[in-house]
Design brief:
Shape of chain A: globular
Structural class of chain A: alpha/beta
CATH architecture of chain B: Alpha-Beta Barrel
GO molecular function (chain B): tryptophan synthase activity
Pathway (chain B): Amino-acid biosynthesis; L-tryptophan biosynthesis; L-tryptophan from chorismate: step 5/5
Strand order of the largest sheet of chain A: 3-4-14-9-10-13
Number of helices of chain A: 17
Strand content of chain B: 5-15%
EC number (chain B): 4.2.1.20
Distance between the termini of chain A: 68 Å
Distance between the termini of chain B: 18 Å
CATH class of the largest domain in chain A: Alpha Beta
Number of domains of chain A: 2
CATH topology of the largest domain in chain A: Rossmann fold
Number of strands of chain B: 9
Family (chain B): Belongs to the TrpA family.
Number of helices of chain B: 12
Oligomer: heterodimer
CATH architecture of the largest domain in chain A: 3-Layer(aba) Sandwich
Order of helices and strands of chain B: HEHEHHEHHEHEEHEHEHEHH
CATH superfamily of chain B: Aldolase class I
Organism (chain B): Cellulomonas iranensis
């Protein structure tokens, strides 16, 4: 650590928070971001949720139960894997460690938050959960927790996404959930959230909206971060154990931003640990086809919170684009917006091409098929390799921690088509073949 | 309501109706700007005023209308696809300001934030608008708007819902000017077979929290429902039924005829109400 950086970090903290730690910052506001921009009809439910959550935090029985589920059901702690063959693509002498959230039950970090909220639902005495999903990961995780804890479950999914991710639709249905395709607006994640909000307003007495990321109205950003902070807490201890030091940098992909907040949180108050979030740059930020809220967006209000978002001159939400459905969202969690503005974390775009290249590199060098979302963090790591040599001032090998937030089983068809291993639309081609 | 002495255009209209020879509730009619076209929406607003609507609620089309059901979503989607802009709303307000009814703009908050809260208030007032209805802005987040509305003498219509606690009813009433919008049911806009039975109680509770005027919306679509609500509320807010008249018509002219008929029926309903003495 350089004395200057540490001092600057402490100064920043003193100015912003009167010396309080960043890691335990509570909502509703993160600087000028966050809040509750929702219909009055939902305020009582958000208050109820906040109260239930704070009560649960103070009750050891709640954390014991969640910890037991994570140990016996999720498969926590997830391993930390050093990936030396991948690291050669990052830079000479750089050590790269992956936090293996891909090995959790249901295949991603999403289960951390889902189990936490589902236990809260039981405490609040509600019988039904609803959720939005883009790629289907959060929907599958929610359907899983609903099956485990005997809750009715309805998942809203953009019609276009139900077609892109037909396999995940079937998984949710197998788990007993009702999947509702949303055929309004852009027919993607944002529209699924609108529809879930409409359902919630109408059924709030019996229903909990199990929001899947660190966005939305207070208390969701704070609560979902807290349910994911186990990622960073584990990784920090594992890395200290393995290397005897903290990482020089942490990299994560950022859609709504839950896996990134989960791993960042443990390092927020270590000013010498650099934090990097990688957004979906799509076809390139200049192309207009991307989901890079920080490079290509501006502050505004969407779906309950004030943060950075993709919007036109009038404030209408602009469509986002990414090869990865999980990063294909026009806004981002308010805590990220705050970390961006105070300079504690940096956010950079990664294009579809860069992400898919990194996807292939990890497959070939380490025998790990990552989710395309997580491949954005891997591509970011490769970008960071260029500057990694400058991180070390005492001669140690630079250490880079990457959150591998999910596994790529769901993406095999997309990746196979991308790399030309199969035809674009295999089902249609097969049908044509039969006609011949 | 607000302790600041700002004249409320909507409030004055509601009071005049309540104090007239045959006292009655107001009919508040919603239509989105830009549907069937920008000029068409101005003609539609005029048509419904001529047919008996007392207060106009003009919706600013928004890409993510979470408080709206399918009918209004469809109309708004069409308006946006045709390129309707925020400044078109101000133009339509200006065009219908002399139609004989106060004009409130219903808007999701990001559109105003993006325009600039003070700039929007200034331009809305200059166009002759009476104020704003803000479905996704609660008073807790409305500091800038409260100040701008005072500065430019605009009404601030906030919503209360059957789930609102007595404390929230009181703070929402305190922040509102013009009237308080009582959501008849837990849900989004749309036509329903019955108006929520919690509506009458909510109106009573909102009055008990200090509201001078409470109008009821969500799910009111038929003359007999309007009459039922007009018996206990200061105003009846109708949206989807009016929008559907335009949506279902083959062309604008047929749409305006259907709209006039729907609005006239609702106006008769409001006028036929047996008012519950307060």
């Amino acid at each position: 650590m350089t004395a200057g950086r540490a001092q600057e970090g402490r100064r920043l903290r003193d100015v912003l928070l009167g010396g309080g730690p960043l890691a335990t910052h509570q909502g509703p506001y993160f600087g000028e971001f966050g809040g509750r921009f929702v219909p009055e009809a939902l305020i009582a439910a958000l208050d109820e949720l906040e109260t239930a959550y704070h009560k649960a935090l103070a009750d050891p029985a709640f954390s014991d139960e969640l910890e037991r589920l994570h140990r016996t059901y999720t498969g926590r702690p997830s391993p930390l894997t050093e990936v030396p063959r991948f690291a050669r693509h990052v830079g000479d002498g750089v050590r790269v460690f992956l936090k293996r959230e891909d090995l959790n039950h249901t295949g991603s970090h999403k289960i951390n938050n889902v189990l936490g909220q589902a236990l809260l639902v039981k405490r609040m005495g509600k019988k039904r959960v609803i959720a939005e999903t883009g790629a289907g990961q959060h929907g599958v995780a929610t359907a899983t927790a609903a099956a485990l804890l005997d809750l009715d479950c309805t998942i809203y999914m953009g019609e276009e996404d139900t077609q892109r991710q037909a396999l995940n639709v079937a998984r949710m249905q197998l788990l007993g959930a009702t999947v509702v395709p949303v055929a309004i607006g852009s027919r993607t994640l944002k529209d699924a959230i609108n529809e879930a909000l409409r359902d919630w307003v109408a059924n709030v007495d019996t229903t909990h909206y199990l929001l899947g990321t660190v966005t939305g109205p207070h208390p969701f950003p704070e609560m979902v971060r807290d349910f994911h902070k186990v990622i960073g807490d584990e990784a920090r201890a594992q890395l200290l154990d393995e290397t005897g030091r903290l990482p020089d940098a942490v990299a994560a992909c950022v859609g709504g931003g839950s896996n990134a907040m989960g791993i960042f949180n443990a390092f927020l108050d270590d000013p010498d640990v650099r934090l990097f979030g990688f957004e979906a740059g799509g076809s390139g930020v200049d192309s207009g086809r991307h989901a890079a809220r920080f490079s290509g967006g501006s502050p505004g209000v969407l779906q309950g919170t004030r943060s950075y978002l993709l919007q036109d001159e009038d404030g209408q939400t602009l469509p986002s684009h990414s090869v990865s459905a999980g990063l294909d969202y026009p806004s981002v969690g308010p805590e990220h917006a705050w970390l961006h503005d105070i300079g504690r974390a940096q956010y950079r775009p990664v294009t579809d091409d860069e992400a898919m290249d990194a996807f292939r590199v990890l497959c070939r060098t380490e025998g790990i098929i990552p989710a395309i979302e997580s491949a954005h963090a891997l591509a970011g790591a490769i970008q960071l390799g260029r500057e990694a040599a400058a991180w070390s001032t005492d001669g140690h090998e630079p250490v880079l921690l990457v959150n591998l937030s999910g596994r790529g089983d769901k993406d095999v068809a997309t990746a196979a088509a991308w790399f030309g291993l199969i035809e674009d639309e295999p089902v249609v081609k097969a049908d044509e073949g039969e006609q011949l | 309501m607000s302790t600041t002495q700002v004249r409320s255009r909507t409030g004055e209209r509601l009071e005049a109706l309540a104090a007239g020879e045959s006292p009655r509730a107001a009919l508040v009619g919603y239509l989105p700007v830009g549907f069937p076209s920008v000029p068409g929406s101005a003609r539609a607003a005029r048509t419904m005023v001529e047919a008996g609507v007392d207060v106009v609620e003009l919706g600013m089309p928004y890409s993510d209308p979470v408080m709206d059901g399918p009918v209004i979503q469809r109309a708004v989607d069409r308006a946006l696809a045709q390129g309707t802009r925020v400044r078109d709303t101000l133009r339509v307000v200006e065009e219908i300001a002399d139609a004989g009814a106060p004009v409130l703009v219903m808007t999701y908050w990001n559109l105003v934030l993006r325009y600039g809260v003070d700039a929007y208030a200034r331009d809305l007032a200059a166009a002759g608008g009476a104020g704003l209805i803000t479905p996704d802005l609660v008073p807790d987040e409305a500091g800038q708007w409260l100040a701008a509305a005072d500065e430019h003498a605009l009404d601030r219509v906030f919503l209360v819902a059957p789930s609102s606690t007595p404390e929230r009813l009181a703070s929402t009433v305190g922040a509102s000017r013009g009237f308080v919008y009582a959501a008849s049911t837990m849900g989004v806009t749309g036509e329903r077979a019955t108006v929520g039975d919690r509506a009458e109680q909510l109106v009573a509770d909102t009055r008990a929290a200090g509201a001078e005027r409470v109008c009821v919306g969500l799910g009111v679509s038929r003359p007999e429902q309007a009459a039922q609500v007009a018996a206990y509320a200061d105003g009846v807010i109708v949206g989807s039924a009016l929008v559907r008249a335009l949506l279902d018509a083959p062309d604008e002219s047929a749409g305006l005829d259907a709209l006039a008929a729907t609005a006239a029926g609702l106006a008769d309903g409001v006028r036929s109400a047996q008012r519950v003495p307060r």
